């Protein structure tokens, strides 16, 4: 059950410090702004709290103005809409943040959060308001405006200068403080503001919300400004953040010239992106992104870790690895998402276990997260200087979220993965691939229902991650870092070899040249593109009539039918694969052609391209408005760029541009001796980076879509939320997108900001 959490503020209050003293002593360690997707995002962290505040940008054409406050503490906060009212109702409403006014805030019963001063240029009415769980807020935004009534709030005290809206936690157990044990949103009018509040209580309890007007007097010319302070607080425990010096290696760390270049401005926090990563990382876990995913996601942590690892301190790396191990279940499966705070109470009730109160709920539905941990650990302990000599102490550490040492918990995951991989090694047919869990429509990073084309066996899991996890386990056993009597390194290697040799071919798709051209022409018409995009961009292996097209399916249906969607998931093989064949690399070269023959636009690499699919319904299902459709995910670009650098480094390492440390296999891959083929890989790498540079201003955000200009045959960035039928939007900052901090463009151009 919930125990009131007091954090630093509560402790100081118990010791006699006043709220004023505490506020005066707070100095933000992080304070920055990011403009993205028609929203102004403000971030703050000090010794009281961490918070993100989102406000609709002034140039937005939306009638309403949305305010979001998201706190990593309990993954809690508030969402509200301000609507024009009175004389403003026929026009637009301006709501802007007063510069420098975002600051941490406290309230009774150890409530901590943030407050901000907002300037209104006309009368406004408080629209839909959700208090408490960020997940409930996201469900409303992306769920067609539907919200469970358990998340309704109540009206607290109010007058013409102040009002308090309150939502009590679902499992509140302390009656004396129940009126504050939850989330509170305060509106108040500063003494020097002319604004006033008008509150009309609802007449049906929590079923009818109160009507709250913000009244702004107008002058003779019909203009005026009123300042209103908005404060959002909860009594969840604030998290201890990793500052940039704890997170990143210091400049001057021994290493290559590429590492020296990459570390510039990171530990010092001089680079804005370093502060943004710091906001998302904490001593006991990494969070995925703000505002929608400001909580733990295992997959996101591990992929981000793999890309950023060369630049990170041992302490930061082990914080991320430990967080994943801590959340393993009794079978060895790894947690996808951690649900905490009030939404955990909601989920536990829905699962028929209200007695669990707000105990965290761990989601294990994904099949890829389980396979990402061992490769990250192997890279850290065996390849990178930061991990040398640290394995024994790390594995001996006692977990805090469950019983056992890290070694004992990891033991379960190792055997869980090996047991799932063994059947295919004995009989390499489709039915022995790793499919989605029973009753689940998702299982890999493309975790929307349509993300893998409604398939059952994801490409990345089966061709890249299963063998990568086995090879990493083999390496750790061989090095003596994993020492379990039932593990034999050579046997693990034999299982991995079967997966490496047999799995990719099951996903191979070939479309003859004539048919490929016909499908391309149909696609450009259906997608409202121009056939001019097809002129001069093909080659004999990527869509010309004389050749044909070969690529790897996005997934396989349960009966083995391929989902014939060209995709970016070969990036996983390039980063994690131990034995990537020449044939596989040729598929990568072919995919890294201009869209729609390939994946590359002038604003980035799209993650799915249904142009060659015989199932033409996927043209609409995976279009530019779909979360995993013909859209650009920044982390996928980073993964592809990292993978190409790794593969090319097996032939000749460039210490001025390759930041990561990847041991060269012995002997080197046979394709390294073919200069023409190696050059084709380098050309593909150049095309990829040119594409990435076309939208460098978006590089740390989550995902974006495009608009196409027929007059210039070029693409421009469009916010996904403006197109998405479900209102799905992009996070302004996304942890795995910062993998670019561990990458350098071989051409010498910078992606940093």
TrEMBL record:
The organism's place on the tree of life at top rank: Eukaryota
InterPro entries hit by this protein: 6-hairpin_glycosidase_sf
Record's signal peptide: 1-20
A biological-process GO annotation: carbohydrate metabolic process
Keywords for the protein's UniProt record, in alphabetical order: Signal
Identification of the protein by name: Glycogen debranching enzyme
Organism of this sequence: Lentinus tigrinus ALCF2SS1-6
């Amino acid at each position: 059950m919930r125990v009131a959490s007091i954090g630093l503020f509560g402790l100081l209050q118990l010791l006699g410090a006043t709220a004023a003293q505490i506020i005066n002593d707070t100095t933000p360690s992080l304070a920055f702004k990011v403009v993205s997707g028609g929203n102004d995002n403000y971030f703050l962290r000090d010794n009281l709290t961490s918070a993100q505040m989102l406000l609709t940008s002034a140039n937005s054409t939306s009638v309403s103005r949305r305010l979001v406050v998201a706190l990593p503490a309990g993954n809690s906060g508030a969402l509200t809409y301000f609507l024009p009212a009175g004389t403003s109702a026929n026009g637009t409403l301006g709501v802007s943040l007063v510069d420098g006014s975002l600051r941490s805030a406290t309230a009774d019963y150890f409530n901590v959060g943030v407050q901000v001063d907002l300037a209104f240029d006309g009368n406004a009415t408080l629209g839909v308001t959700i208090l408490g769980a960020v997940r409930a807020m996201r469900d409303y935004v992306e769920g067609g405006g539907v919200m469970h009534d358990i998340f309704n709030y109540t009206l607290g005290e109010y007058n013409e200068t102040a009002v308090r809206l309150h939502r009590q936690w679902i499992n509140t157990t302390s009656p004396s403080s129940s009126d504050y044990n939850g989330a509170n949103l305060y509106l108040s009018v500063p003494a020097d503001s002319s604004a006033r509040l008008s509150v009309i209580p609802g007449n049906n309890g929590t079923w009818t919300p109160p009507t709250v007007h913000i009244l702004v007097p107008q002058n003779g010319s019909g203009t005026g400004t009123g300042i209103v302070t908005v404060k959002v607080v909860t009594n969840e425990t604030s998290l201890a953040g990793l500052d940039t010096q704890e997170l990143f290696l210091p400049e001057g760390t021994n290493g290559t010239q590429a590492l020296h270049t990459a570390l510039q401005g990171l530990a010092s926090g001089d680079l804005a992106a370093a502060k943004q990563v710091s906001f998302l990382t904490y001593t006991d876990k990494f969070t995925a992104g703000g505002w929608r995913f400001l909580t733990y996601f295992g997959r996101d942590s591990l992929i981000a870790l793999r890309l950023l690892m060369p630049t990170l301190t041992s302490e930061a790396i082990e914080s991320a690895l430990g967080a994943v191990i801590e959340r393993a279940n009794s079978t060895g499966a790894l947690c996808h998402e951690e649900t905490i705070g009030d939404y955990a109470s909601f989920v536990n009730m829905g699962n028929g276990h209200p007695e669990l109160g707000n105990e965290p709920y761990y989601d294990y539905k994904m099949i890829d997260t389980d396979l990402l941990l061992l490769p990250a650990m192997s890279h850290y302990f065996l390849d990178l200087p930061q991990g040398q000599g640290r394995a024994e102490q790390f594995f001996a550490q006692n977990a805090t979220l469950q019983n056992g040492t890290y070694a004992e918990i990891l033991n379960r995951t190792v055997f869980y993965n090996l047991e799932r991989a063994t059947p295919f090694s004995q009989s390499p047919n489709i039915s022995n691939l790793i499919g989605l869990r029973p009753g689940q429509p998702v299982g890999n990073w493309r975790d929307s229902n349509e993300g893998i084309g409604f398939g059952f066996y994801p490409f990345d899991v089966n061709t890249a991650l299963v063998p990568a996890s086995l090879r990493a386990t083999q390496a750790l056993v061989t090095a003596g870092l994993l020492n379990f009597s039932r593990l034999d390194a050579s046997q693990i290697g034999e299982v991995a070899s079967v997966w490496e040799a047999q799995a990719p071919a099951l996903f191979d798709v070939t479309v003859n040249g004539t048919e490929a051209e016909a499908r391309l022409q149909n696609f450009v018409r259906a997608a409202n593109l121009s056939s001019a995009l097809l002129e001069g961009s093909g080659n004999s292996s990527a869509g010309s009539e004389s050749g044909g097209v070969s690529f790897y399916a996005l997934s396989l249906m349960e009966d083995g039918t391929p989902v014939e969607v060209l995709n970016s998931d070969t990036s996983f093989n390039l980063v994690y694969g131990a034995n990537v064949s020449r044939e596989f690399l040729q598929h990568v070269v072919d995919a890294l052609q201009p869209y729609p023959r390939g994946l590359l636009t002038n604003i980035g690499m799209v993650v799915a391209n249904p142009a060659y699919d015989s199932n033409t319904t996927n043209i609409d299902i995976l279009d530019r408005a779909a979360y995993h459709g013909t859209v650009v995910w920044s982390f996928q670009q980073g993964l592809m760029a990292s993978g190409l650098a790794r593969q090319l480094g097996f032939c000749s390492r460039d210490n001025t541009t390759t930041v990561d440390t990847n041991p060269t296999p012995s002997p080197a891959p046979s394709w390294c001796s073919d200069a023409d083929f190696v050059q084709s890989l380098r050309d593909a790498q150049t095309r990829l980076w040119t594409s990435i540079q076309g939208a460098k201003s978006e590089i740390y955000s989550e995902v974006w879509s495009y608009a196409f200009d027929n007059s210039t045959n070029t693409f421009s960035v469009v916010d996904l939320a403006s197109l998405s039928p479900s209102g799905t939007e992009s996070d302004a900052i996304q942890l795995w997108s910062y993998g670019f901090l561990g990458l350098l463009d071989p051409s010498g151009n910078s992606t940093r900001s």
